[in-house]
Amino acid sequence: MKRGLTGFNIAALVVGFGFLYLPIVLLVIYSFNASRLVTVWGGFSTRWYASLFRNEQLLDAIWVTFRVGLISATIATILGTLAAIALVRARHFRGRTVFSGMVFAPLVMPEVILGLSLLLLFVSLGMPRGFWTVTVSHATITMCYACVVIQARLAAFDQQLEEAAQDLGCPPIKSFFLVTLPNIAPAVAAAWMLAFTLSLDDLVIASFTSGPGATTLPMRIYSQVRLGVSPEINAVSTLLIGLVATGVIAVYLFQLRRKTDD
Amino acid sequence: MTERSRPRLNIGAVRSTFAPWADPTAKPLVRFENVVKRFDGETAVNGVSLDIYPGEFFALLGPSGCGKTTLMRLLAGFETPDEGRVLLAGEDLAGKRPHERPVNMMFQSYALFPHLSVERNIAFGLKQQGMPKDEIAARVSEMLSLVRLDGLAKRKPHQLSGGQRQRVALARAIAPRPKMLLLDEPLAALDKKLREETQWELMALQQQLGMTFLIVTHDQEEAMVTADRIAVMRSGQIVQMGRPADVYEAPNSRYVADFIGDVNIFEGVAEHADGLSVRLASAESPQGFDIVEDDRIPLGSTAWLAVRPEKILVHLDEPPPGPNRMAGKVADIGYLGDWTTYLVELESGRTIRAARANATRFVDRPVDWDDQVWLTFARDAGVVLTQ
What we know:
- The complex is a heterodimer.
- Chain A is an all-alpha fold.
- In chain A, 77% of the residues lie in helices and 0% in strands.
- Chain B contains eight helices and 20 strands.
- Chain B has helices at residues 68-76, 118-128, 133-146, 162-174, 192-209, 220-226, 244-249, 254-259, and strands at residues 30-39, 42-52, 57-61, 83-88, 91-92, 103-106, 180-184, 212-217, 229-234, 237-242, 264-273, 277-281, 289-292, 302-307, 313-315, 325-335, 339-346, 351-357, 372-376, 383-385.
- Chain B starts with 29 loop residues before the first strand and ends with a strand.
């Protein structure tokens, strides 16, 4: 077997990655476009980045999105960890199979339906839509993803370690924090990152559950695009891509370092 | 049946003056009182009563699934008894959770904390006790030199060999100076040579610390070498308890005789007694078996004679006729270096196991395959079993 790059492999790579990344590359390039017209190249400029930082509405949306992301990812990670513990540790309880199936359900459910059902819930509870309803909704959805990630790690974790800690005089809750948590920390961090990214990206659920004064960045971008694409949107999107890429690379390097430590 | 006296004999080659279990005034450190534990309707421990004394090295021995590990976990607090009580130093342990019990356990998997260095693993229990930092450091280095791991303090568990990990687990469990150390199959993961060495080390350590050790094992050699007393378990019950020599030389059932070491078991019917010996009629030996007088076997009853391979002598020349004599052919020879085991096929088709210590390097005439041989054993070489 030839293990190097054959002509076919190279072609497949170019087509595949081109399909994925060409639009993104275009967007990044046009964010440095001096021209106001999105489709006409008018030379290199960073003016849209400058104007972006004067656009109050956009800055506000960024700030809302980050707050929603931080809080919802944190809630989702905590809830996801708890659910994962229950599903991994308690092997025999009535309806365990149903519960572990139900945790995955939101992963495959159409977002529109999730958004609608959350909206109906908030309406019937008489909750005014706004920052907290978006945050709670995001936490609910991303919790499932967090749970799946942590569950996998927890299943591989030797439960005798916690018994050993208790045997050495450590109470159960403290044993969890001193022994289990440090060992599943990479998965918890990954789960948080995933939840944060999902919240950052989300447009559908935010549209359903948000209200006045809590417009997230994807919502703002979408509404502006409807009125015509502004190069500012390209700039903010480029920043977003840069941020997500930095996060992904940081996680990758962190895991690489852990591996070489072992 | 008339009262017949049995001569008092010293059992085994070991003489021990440490025997608190024989002292009625001695107070046990641990007491199991009619302990029963069920899992989903299966009875794992079925009415076990057991006393373990301070300073004792006690072994729970049995095949897997006999309830020995459950018994240990009941003491550590990871399981709660369905019936009966577990007492430590006279105090009922019911309601005390694992972290409140002054016993420490060494897990079969070692369960070392992978994210902590060797020294922080050992310090873990000490920190829970709230020991001051400098005392912890002193105790940790004392433990490290006790288990000969000096210089490895900063290593992580995955950077250690199996034997080193085993010693870290041991150091971590004894560092808080528990009233009792529980060892769950502590040597199972080590290779044979290391296992033997570690057995001796464990004994020395136990002596040095004066700590009470409870070991759970399926390896009879491990139990025999290390323990002061052994409890042989079978399906949740203790079938025999005693010093290793008692259990080996005076098993109380065919199960125990067979489980501990190799044994040849002959079935026979008691047909004659003269006050000194009993004659068992058996198909295996033309003139039957002569055994030391035993009042547990009335004439006419069936009994089993258990004879260990090393107590059977192999003769190449025909000995004079008499009881305890069998003729056969050498079917197989297993040379182990220190011992040679002969499998001798009798005329009846039964295979008997005889073993001989290779006390000299040279022999006049070695036993060969297919040699005609005679097997004999002394009147007191076997033990009579009634069950």
